[in-house]
Amino acid sequence: MTRLYFSLAAIFSSGIFAYSYWKEWIEIKWMNNQAVLYPEKQDAPYFHASEELYLRVLLIFAISFTLIGSLSVIFTIKQKWKGVFFCFVLSMLCILAVMINGAIK
């Protein structure tokens, strides 16, 4: 049961984040959607100062979540449960990095 839980948690947690970051990056970069860089508040996060920096942050998180999700799938297929658990821990640390990135002003 725990093997199934960790494999599903590692795949879905990183997969959902990878999808959302890739979707936003592709929409801004290739579909000519405008990024909301200056919200109504004056205290905006640091990455709202430049579209290039905002896109770079999106791309870094998209690539990291995609790699973690891909490794989770590979380790699940090969039934290497230590690797699956490692990917689960990595996905949680990457989610923590997303939260810290959002908290920095």
Describe the structure.
With 105 residues, this protein is mainly α. It has one domain. 75% of the residues lie in helices and 0% in strands. It is built from three helices and no strands. The protein has helices at residues 2-29, 51-78, 81-103. The longest helix is centred in the N-terminal third of the chain and has 28 residues, at 2-29. The relative contact order is 0.19.
Query: What integer value in Å does the Rg equal?
Result: 16 Å
* Unreliable sequence segments: none
- Note the beta-strand portion: under 5%
In whole angstroms, the N-to-C terminal distance is 41 Å
**Total of DSSP H or I helical runs spanning 4+ residues:** 3
Give the domain tally: 1
Number of strands: 0
What is the N-to-C succession of helices and strands?
HHH
Please summarize the sheet with the most strands.
none
The structural class is mainly alpha
Helix content: over 70%
User: Which overall shape is indicated by the principal axes computed on the Cα atoms?
Assistant: elongated
pLDDT averaged over residues:
84
Main traits of this protein?
105 residues, elongated, single chain, mainly alpha, 75% helix, 3 helices
